[in-house]
Amino acid sequence: MAKERLYKWLDSQMSSMFYTSNHPHEVPEYVKNNLKDELRHYQEEAIRRFQFMQEDNLLEGISDAGFQRKQLLFNMATGSGKTMVMASLILYLYKEFNYQNFIFLVNTDAIIKKTYENMLNSSSSKYLFNPEGIFIDGEQILIQAVENFPAVKDKNIIYLKLTTIQKIHGELNKPKENGISLNSLEEEDIVILGDEAHHFNASTRKEREEEESWENTINKMVYLRTNNKLLEFSATINMDDKNISQKYSNKIIYKYDLGEFMNDGYSKNVLRLQSSDNDDEKMKDVLLLSQYRKLIAKENGISYFKPVIMFKSSKIKISEQKREDFNDIIETLSVESLSKYINQRKTTISSRSTLYKVFSYFLEQDLDSVIRGIQEDFEARNILNANEKNMLSIDNAVLLNSLENINNPIRVIFAVAKLNEGWDVLNLYDIVRISEGAGITRNATDSEAQLVGRGARYFPFEYEGKKSFKRRFNNQNNDLRILETLHYHTINEKGYLANLEKSMNAVNLISSSDETVKILSTKLKKSFKNSSVYKQGNLFVNESRETTPEDYNSLSKFTISKEWETEYIGSIIETDYQGKSNDDAVIQREFEYLTVDKRFFKKSLQRNQFFRFSNLKKYLPLLESKDELIDSEQYFNGVAIKVSLPKGTQILDLSAFEKLEIIDKFLSYCEEKIRNNYKKNIGLKIFSPIRIRDTLRDYETIVPKFDTGYVTQRIETHDMRGKNWFVYTDAVMNRLEYDLVLLIESFIRELESKYNHVFLIRNDEKATRYKLREFEGPRGFMPDFILYLENETFVYQLFIEPKGEDREKEDLWKQEMLQAINGTDIEIIGENDNVSLFGIKFYNSKNRENFISELSTKVNSGFPLDGRVNLFNED
Questions:
Q1: C-alpha–C-alpha distance, residues 724 and 760, integer Å
Q2: What pLDDT digit, counting tens, does each position of 296-308 carry?
Q3: Average pLDDT value for residue range 633-649
Q4: Cα–Cα nearest to 561, from 638, 502, 621, 480
Q5: Which tens digit of pLDDT belongs to each residue from 593-613?
Q6: How far apart are CA 199 and CA 492, in angstroms?
Q7: Which residues of 749-768 are buried (b: 16+ CB within 10 A; e: fewer)?
Q8: What is the structure's pLDDT at 705?
């Protein structure tokens, strides 16, 4: 069994000096020449890795490392061109290994039709091969669609069977005369190309038994012959699932996620318009925004630019109703109503937002002419309802997948959940979340994040005679940036936005709320990448274990604190737009602990369905009764509720209803903590190495251009060129974090006199995803900095976290973890006593001296680090 994931092993093998000098794989010219478009660097890398795995003279090393080449998976982002990689591999396998039989396998008929356009229809704009023909060694090669592979093969023909897993499962289990069967497949080698391969591994849906049999069917085909291959492609393989991870750790040949895709510039920028407005206002806003895009393109000489809007609903009935509402808005537009609406909306939004710019633009136009253009562009025949039964027919799948074509008039699509996969559209610029009936759960936001990722595909429009497949206007403050930006119009609701952020992070989707923004980027320095630390060094991350019932024997195990604070308002406070109060308006407050009769607690528990005993037992398996929940110090009897009250007010002054409301609020807090922390792994004090070169990468951050009002929180870029001890070209961080960097800089001469290698590593979530897990707890922790110190005989790694004084109490557990890292019970796997890990107390202005003292103790033998440079050399 392989000890590491295949793609990580390939990273090291293919970057070694031995490999690059002896096996420099390059994509063959016959592959490049027979594709319509030029391969991108990451597509070439995927193909090169496949070539590496096919080399017979490397087979022994591949086998010894625990890998095989019969089944491989390409884990590549939505929109990154996985089908282009498939097309290239078909040509490569045909030419180099004489494969003629290929089965394209997928989950839905819609993707079959799309793939037909990609692989077989040379007149389609989606065709991937050279439309003038495929030629290898001077001979023309044809790709022919088949239902069954012919017993006698014609020369120079590649046979391609396009099918769904459901269909081929039925064909092979109930074969028909002259149809495909396991017996017919035994005659010749085949290659199976599995698209959206995560569907073949579902284990929690109702169709579990059937889907498992699908997987068995695939395995039967693959293992019919020694040389058969299964090449899978998916953007969404959940490696956090233990079973999936076990199956695919030794099969993922290449990983190129959505964050890398977006950072490389192959996608639109993604901005969120978070609004508390109703659906009608969202419809009017997006209508104007979409038409603004079209007009800006026209003003800049872009002859054909048609931005598409998608309205995403939770139910078909709601979607149908919203379509009628949208039609009514279009039909009833008038100069008076539109002018009134724009002027009113301008007063309710930030002057720095895109919509403000859109409204200002239209107020300078002839609104009568604008309305005529809108009513022509958005008439009913240009609006598509993808929920209607006839819309998902094979013929209409072509319409949905040709929205960029000049003769396709569609501007708006109403949909529920039918377009989350297999939908290749490049000119989708607005996705509008219909609020009515919509969910705010993590499952709902996961689906939305996947859809936004799909809509982020870049539209390669022609500008000044040139067509680009990458963003061109990132760092230019001009109107054309709107043509490279996807807007996701959503609701401004705290719980929903928190889940959306998590969902977007899970797929590494880079997004920001819409204001006038700038993109701050930084790269790993070449000097660092050439160092032995980058090439051979390791960082250390603590391992985790699965939870047991004993891990849920108290509320504290769900990170519910022993003392919970809340504020009883009791009055209205006027604040400015930043939430700041005038000094005169600040109400003096004092704390008092809430004490109530148990009947209050029982009443509140009854009002919250989550705390029904049958449900609660899932999360607290050792709980014996509801009485124990209330009476035991392991549970609610061990928690104090501390209430902030206006001065002069006491708990006794509160009504029974007001006290019940406070308990309701506390139970909601507990419910969120229990749900979020249930079945998460528990962090251990065992640390294992991960390669630095596999962990660090270039990254970019999207930030507002305007002042947030809090100088210490403003993200800025600081040039770090010439400072080889800092691993990135620029320090992208807030004021407190940069103060820490300046402090470390003042000690650099002292540290470099003591250590051969001194590096300060910025651990930004956009760059590393390097995370520790709380010891004996479920929470994750990304220390902001890692100070790496190395001598000939030992390595020190120090975890450092700047923390504002206002956050110290909330994040106290992180400081406790940093201190626990210094304990004698920390185990470092695969290393001897030459590696030491240290955690330092939080850094801020109040703790500065304590921080310096502790750092001096850890890395300077107790001698104070003072940052002083002596004027004279010592004799």
A1: 9
A2: 999 999 988 999 9
A3: 85
A4: 638
A5: 888 888 888 888 888 888 888
A6: 33
A7: ebbeeebebbbbbbbbebbb
A8: 55
Crossing angle for the helix pair 494-506 and 442-455, nearest 10 degrees? 60
From CA 458, how far away is CA 468, in angstroms rounded?
9
DSSP-derived letter for residue 5 is -
Cα separation, 208 vs 214, whole angstroms: 10
pLDDT in tens, 805-828: 878 887 888 999 999 999 989 989
SS3 content of the chain, % helix, strand, coil (to 5): 40, 20, 40
Q: Taking residues 555-568, what's their average pLDDT?
A: 82
Helix (H, G, I), strand (E, B) or coil at 598: helix
CB 420 within 8 A of CB 450: yes
DSSP 528-577: HHTSHHHHH-EEEEEEEE---GGGGSSGGGGT--SEEEEE---S---B-T
End-to-end alpha carbon distance in the chain: 59
What count of Cα atoms within 13 Å lies in the side-chain half-sphere of residue 506?
A: 20
Mean per-residue pLDDT over the chain, rounded: 84
Please give the average per-residue pLDDT across 312-330, as a whole number.
90
Tell me the C-alpha distance between 212 and 410, whole Å.
Answer: 39
Spatial separation of the C-alpha atoms in residues 305 and 302, rounded to whole Å: 7
Using CA atoms, how far apart are residues 288 and 307, in angstroms rounded to an integer?
12
Rounded to whole angstroms, the Cα distance separating 791 from 796 reads: 9
Rounded CA separation 164/418 (Å) = 17
318's enclosing H/E stretch is: helix 316-331
Q: Give the pLDDT confidence score for residue 515 in this predicted structure.
A: 55
